[in-house]
# Entry
Amino acid sequence: MRYELLVGLRYTRAKRRNHFISFISLISMAGMALGVAALIVVLSVMNGFQTEIRTRILGVASHVQIQDARGSLADWQAVARAAAKNPRVMATAPYVTGQGMLTRGRAARGTLVRGILPGEEGRVTDIGRHMSAGTLDALRPGEFGILLGADLARYLGAIAGDKVALIIPQGNVTPAGVLPRLKQFTVLGLFDTGYSEADSALALVHLVDAQRLYQMGEAVSGVRLKLDDLFEARRVAQEVTLNLDRDNYAYDWTRANPNLFRAIQIEKRMMFIIMVLIITVAAFNVVSTLVMLVTDKQADIAILRTLGAAPGSVMQIFMVQGAVIGVIGTLLGVAGGVALALNIETVVPALESALGFKFLAKDVYMIPDLPSQVEAADVTVITVVSLLMSFLATLYPSWRAARVNPAEALRYE
# Structure
């Protein structure tokens, strides 16, 4: 073993005369570990949040939608067949969408009405898996049944079997003027997707009933596609558009919610910068620790120089000690951060139960739980950044140690 490494490790293990320096070394190590752990947990939560939002949005919406520039798609069967020829398309389903207001008693709530074919809807969305009461197959043409989001039903005070009135803005012309159309529906079931915007504002009816209600005849609002790889949605949308009529177009989920996912990505970058600043503070602690150590060990440095140690060797000794602080702190932080990130869904509910309040209220945030997804690339980048900053923190103190004059250091010994 090179003597620089041996002396550097011995300085790290040895009992120091100055216990304050030892305490500062532990604080530096703990600060480095805390910064690394916090950065891993924050980025993992941001990853989980982005994945969860994407999953829940696509569980209600779709990967790709095909619409007509005129507002209604007449020959939707031909469009669905043309889209299904793409090898990436797994399933297709028509839909009718429109605005309306649901009322029951004195309660009224604006809603997005979606007409579906129950047999096809389960192939392109996950709503059927989140039914808390009833099933999609309960919707039958001509019976005017309706499925409500759990929060929407709770606001209206409606349960399965109740009657609700749907008022739509398209009116009927009468001698008394234009009156809004109203139709009574029977609640056949409730769904709870965990996506607040859908649970509080979405209502499902049969496609035929929606066509009658919105006077669309045999036309639909569009056709939705499910792909085998959601990240290929943009390319598939472009390929499908080339095979459609001039008035038809396809757009993917990334264009339907661009601001949301862009905001999450920007927040992730900003949180990375903020957390790196925490690691930087810990690195400054390493600098102060080594500066004090160099001052305390001036006599030892002078003796080594007198015995023939080169300035570069003295510099390496203190770089080893600073690197040990950085490496141990980083490894502890990585271990603690990954362990906490993997168990965040257990830790957070325990804290919420102990503190008596919920961190993510469903009426404020899109999802009620705090998800986490540890990515190896993030952990690798964090580890490399932490080790690099630890190494840079050792350069100035080590350079000062290498410049110690043996004669000056031993004058008062």
